[in-house]
């Protein structure tokens, strides 16, 4: 009895020490409890106990959470195509530049086509006139200006659209396809949407409003995951 009593803590101590040397990964640990074979993980470990004693099965150690590097874009910096942009009350809404393309027409003109998605997150109607409020504000190469949407550009691009002011109901989402002429052979680099169409800056150029929301046409290289809408009445901090 004495010999057995002394042996048990030694075996258990050695087994426990061996387990401390195993780098357990809870995502791929393969732990088994058996009287014939010892437990093992995908790490190189072969832990044995004497017959008659239960196999030690440690709980896998959870890995620490990954480090997240915060990244934020705030106006007047340009957002990226596909970014979900939120505005606060009294007119809470979500804006997204969905797509941008260029069409060279047989008539020798270049048409920029862009799609804007707008969702009303407020509890009342939201009046918007995207064909007036949105325009191409910069071309690839750096030239800036106001290249707005027009019905003629939409017709030349083969689009069937109606440009008019509408009211979005609470929680309603709509996608608007806009088309505007730009210099021949050019390509858009920035798309702007004026959040407040009621106040226009006095100095030229005459812009269709104020409080500009600007997108780059390329996708976000820092964040590819979609951002979920916040709960009703709650928006992300500025």
Description of the structure:
This protein is mostly beta strands and 238 residues long. 12% of the residues lie in helices and 32% in strands. The chain is built from three helices and eleven strands, in the order αβββββαββαββββ. The strands form three sheets. Strands 1-11-10-6-7 form a five-stranded mixed β-sheet. Strand 3 and strand 4 form a beta hairpin. The radius of gyration is 31 Å and the shape is globular. Residues 1-51 have low confidence and may be disordered.
Name some characteristics of this structure.
5-stranded mixed beta sheet, mainly beta, 238 residues, 3 helices, 12% helix, single chain, disordered N terminus, 4-stranded antiparallel beta sheet
Please identify the oligomeric state: single chain
Gap from first CA to last CA: 72 Å
Q: How many helices in DSSP terms?
A: 3
In percent, how helical is the residue content? 10-25%
Radius of gyration: 31 Å
Order of helices and strands: HEEEEEHEEHEEEE
Helix/strand-derived category reads mainly beta
* Uncertain residue segments: 1-51
Write a concise synopsis of the structure shown.
The protein is mostly beta strands and 238 residues long.
Layout of secondary structure:
Layout (H helix, E strand, L loop, with lengths): L1 H19 L58 E3 L3 E3 L5 E12 L5 E11 L5 E3 L1 H4 E6 L4 E5 L2 H6 L9 E3 L4 E10 L5 E9 L13 E10 L19
Parallel strand pairs: 1-11
Antiparallel strand pairs: 2-3, 3-4, 4-9, 5-8, 6-7, 6-10, 10-11
């Amino acid at each position: 009895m004495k010999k057995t009593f002394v042996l048990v803590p030694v075996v258990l101590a050695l087994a426990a020490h061996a387990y401390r040397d195993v780098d357990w990964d809870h995502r791929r640990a393969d732990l088994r409890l058996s009287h014939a074979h010892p437990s093992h993980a995908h790490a190189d470990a072969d832990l044995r106990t004497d017959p008659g004693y239960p196999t030690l099965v440690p709980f896998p150690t959870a890995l620490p959470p990954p480090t997240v590097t915060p990244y934020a874009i705030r106006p007047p910096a340009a957002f990226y195509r596909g970014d979900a942009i939120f505005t606060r009350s009294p007119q809470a809404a979500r804006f997204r530049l969905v797509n941008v393309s260029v069409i060279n027409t047989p008539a020798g003109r270049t048409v920029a086509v862009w799609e804007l998605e707008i969702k009303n997150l407020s509890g009342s109607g939201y009046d918007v006139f995207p064909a007036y409020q949105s325009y191409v504000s910069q071309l690839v190469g750096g030239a800036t200006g106001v290249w707005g949407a027009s019905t003629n550009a939409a017709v030349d691009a083969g689009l069937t659209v109606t440009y008019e002011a509408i009211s979005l109901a609470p929680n309603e989402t709509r996608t608007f396809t806009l088309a505007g002429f730009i210099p021949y052979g050019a390509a858009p680099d920035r798309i702007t949407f004026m959040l407040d169409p009621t106040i226009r800056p006095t100095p030229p150029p005459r812009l269709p409003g104020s409080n500009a929301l600007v997108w780059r046409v390329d996708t976000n290289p820092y964040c590819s995951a979609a951002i979920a809408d916040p709960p009703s009445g709650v928006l992300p901090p500025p």
